[in-house]
Amino acid sequence: MCGIIGYIIKEGGEKNLAPILINGLRRLEYRGYDSAGLSVINAKGEVLKEKSVGKIDSLVEKLKDQEFIGTLGIAHTRWATHGGVTESNTHPHTDCSGRIILVHNGIIENYRDLREKFLKDHNFVSETDTEVLAHLIEYFYTQTNKKDLRGSLIKALQLVVGTYGIAVVSLDEPNKIICARKGSPLVLGVADDAFLIASDASPLLPHTKKVIYLEDGEILELTPKDFQIFNLKDEKIARTPEEIEWNEEQAQKGGFPHFMLKEIFEQPNTFKDALAGRLVPNDGVAHLGGLRLTDEELRQIKKIKIIACGSAFHAGLVGKYILEHVAWMPTDVEVASEFRYRDPVVEDNTLTICISQSGETADTLGALIEARRKGSKVMGIVNVVGSTIAREAGRGVYIHAGPELSVASTKAFTNQVAILMVLALQLGRLTHLPLATGKLIIKSILEIPAKMQEIIKQNEVIKNIAEKYKAYEDFYFIGRGINAPIALEGALKLKEISYVHAEGMPSGELKHGPIALIDDKCPVMAIVTKDSLYEKMVSNVEEIKARHGKLILIATEGDEDVKKLSDDIIYIPKTSEMLSPLLTVVPMQLFAYHMAVLRGKDVDRPRNLAKSVTVE
Ligand code: M6R
Predict the structure, then answer these.
(1) More exposed terminus of the chain, fewer Cβ within 10 Å: N or C?
(2) In this structure, which residue's CA is closest to atom 12 in ligand 1?
(3) How does pLDDT run across 144-155, given as a tens digit for each residue?
């Protein structure tokens, strides 16, 4: 978790690097925002540094009226794992002399052992695992007179157990940044006037689109002249930059007050991007190129396991309904953090699908590796191009949602469901699904963006409903069938950004206990769309009404009957039952968003959370 940025001017010039580093950190702030710091080295080999507890703005406040003129710099925004949120635990960290300066993302699991074994006489100032790394580099750096930062880092990393994305500098070699990656992403940007390194590509976009995604076990050396990549044996590796697709505008708020609202509003377009080139309407077929499985291999798959966390898990639950209904494919869905700590039985001909927006979620990555070890074919459904899960899976599908910067996942969720639908269609058409049904499914899929737009137009209606309910502290979210996971997703959205207690459940479960809590203080948001379970949902709604529960209903447009049961109602356009979650989720996203804004919360960066969860 945590974000890193590094910058080195080509050809050795000097300039004020603070604004560049700060702008980079702002784009990484979603990765953690407990505290932030930066170090800049000037042409005389001196270091200028600043740290601050709190969000990037508090660091900016401290930097006010200061210029950090230098040739290179490194900076970090932290999400605390080892050691509290204090200035001394804030990165950059240094060795005893203060001459080796380091930022790190990840966890050094054996930091206590390393400290005990090699660093007993070193002087530590923080409680972090990271500081051990700075001292371990120092341990090797001072063993000879030859100043060799890269070699010392490699020696240190050979002793390290854990994950890292690192950028380190030494005042004794003041024209170099050395970086290393294992399990925490790092991307090199090659600009006309500088080299950059960052935890993801978004801070690079104002400078360049030419990037190299470092692989695990790679070491990068940046100097004003060039960049070189090595392996952990210190052998040179040849890599050429590639062009990234994301543009600068995509990474900005584009006039919206928050990334979350922008990302909700983007869904009609991002949904189209997920489908682009993947559907053949005349043949009623779908094709996901990244699967890298022949039709015959796809026909041999007898079971799908979906593994994910949070919203991606909810997308997987929706996917189970779709895959079983459309492709007749037995599908299990499991929370990634549980998967590898039980004894998962992976049957023959199982395809394990790991869904992750960031592609960096440690639990999901761990589960992927375990499933593969047990003999399963694995694939990723991932948003961030070049991310660890995307590359580790070797086979997979990008959801093409563009950068999702709000911590609360919205457009990635709908695109994950879109891809699962496309996959189900592809599998179904390879086995039993007739041409006519395939064509019908594609027709319905292609109508979704316009229907999403219809819901988005009701933003003000939903805002007014949120206004009415903003003071309530407990909510239930209920749905049935394929919309039961949307109830879970609606509750997750509300609690994570507005800090209101919310529970989501299949509505059939209410009578097994939760209905005891229903009264006029616990509003219920219920999905009562016209589908195969409509009558049963209406009965559940009646049961709530009879107990004086307040009801906010999501219903199919034109349904006047159900309106009589509601306190408030949001209408959505009619679509096929299998695709309905793509629509029912949108009012839930907007409701959660407005609740959070009205309660004065930091929508895009909710407390205690981070966008990519790279710890277990
Ligand atoms: O990057 P991932 O999709 O793997 O992230 C999984 C969850 O951490 C994520 O969906 C989380 O639940 C979101 N904050 C939900 O909005």
Answers:
(1) C
(2) 310
(3) 888 999 999 999
